[in-house]
Amino acid sequence: MFEIRIHSRGGQGGVTAARLLAMAALHDGNYATACPFYGAERRGAPVVSFVRIDARPIKIYSQIRSPDMIIVLDESVMQAVDVLHGLKTGGKILINSPHKKDFTGFVTNSVDLTGIALRENLVVAGSPILNTPVIGALAKTGIVSAAAAKSAIRSMFTDERNIRAAEAAHDEVSA
Amino acid sequence: MKKIVTGNKAVAEAVREAKPDVVAAYPITPQTEIVETLADYVSGGQLASQYIPVESEHSAMAACIGASLSGGRTFTATSSQGLLYMHEMTNWAAGARLPIVMANVNRSLAPGWNLWAEHTDAMQERDTGWLQVYVSTVQEAYDTILMAFRIAEHHDVLLPVMVNLDGFTLSHIMQPLDTVEPGDFIPLIHLPETVDPKNPRGYGTIAGPADYFRFRWDIERSMRESVNVIEETQAEFSQRFGRSYGLTEEYRCSDADVVVVALGTLGKEAEVAVDILRTEGIKAGSLRLRWFRPFPELGLAGKEVVVIDRDYSFGFGGILAHSIRSKNLVNVYSVIAGLGGQEVTYDDIAGFIRNRRIGEECWFGVNDHV
To answer: I need a surface site. Which of A144, B163, B218, B333 has the fewest CB within 10 A?
Structure first.
């Protein structure tokens, strides 16, 4: 089983990213569950959501305690939250940042998802859409296939800018 | 084609397939997504139901009762305080033999205000004459709603059915869902007795002691008969759609020395605990009760039993633990866990089994021995 925790702020699309990722895993022929943290989410507050991916049906409902991967959609939450909490030694980190990041003991990928969303003009109510580019970036890390990532995005969004953003993010990740 | 949806959305999709004549409901967290989605289906023309946005849960059940009396298929959904507010009418629905289907998204009872999973809300309805089933996955929620209409409306049953799913833990989690075309799996509703609003009449509804007693016995007779209807419905569901369900779901029970019993998502997570214990040489098994009313035969004789209750009857004990004791003549280790959404992991459940003290009661996180 592969367990992922997504850090974002309420309203940034962390839950939708979790759902897209689960859908992509399903397209790959795996089982997946996605869930928001069952708390009192507020717009702008740091929030987390979770994804589990496995080849077998998933029976676990309790929260992920030691994830295999951390995704940070908004690096400003790192001032408020210990995003590395519980991350397995050697675990993966995908962080939305224009700057290269490194965390000792982990495999880190930085990708400028915000910049990609702005270049594709993927902006809703003044906020860049991060959940479709991040799925493209994840496809590069091998969590889901690129074909599954695209079909998952197309099953939820008709606007092809989402696909272009996902492809751009895919290309920016060093693998 | 499979998709990824929440437990709430799966319930709404199943209700759409069942095509109720009337949906009457009042929103309440964590159930709201069910009735919001159904309202969207109705306003978008995907569901040709009469949607009645009532002012309270009491009225929701009253509206379902009226619609069901006139022969219509009816659905409502609620949770927690909303279910309690319905309580007078839930008794009426069962007593009047109306096959209403309800989704109850299990949530604790106030005070303090808490939105998270607990089964005490549904347990307070256990003596009303409603059939009760507890589901553990998004797919099972969908499949069970479809079966619930057929079971409730079967002429050997004619009792309402409550489908329970854990608040947030299942209502808000997203999992794969495979939808079906139910076709004539749910036959057109045909109730033996109906009232006709176009031909109004007066009915004498007083029942003297002798008649009343017979009506009560008749409910119990149908409740007992419902076991056959449930089994036959589940068997046909399996034949048509390939997914099998029992009155219970047993996992590695046949050779087990110790069996953990639970409802809902805890009952599913317990299977992971069983696998862990098996690697330690502990012959554990898991038995998840799906149907709580009618209460099934469990065949636990000769096994040690650990019961997890996500509910409580103050001054008495865990309601599931006591039900199992009284129906199976076994002593149990009673664990009270998960109230108000308390986090309970598979490791915790493995600990309950490993450190069991048969005959005792433990409140997880308060006076537990693990």
So the answer is: B218
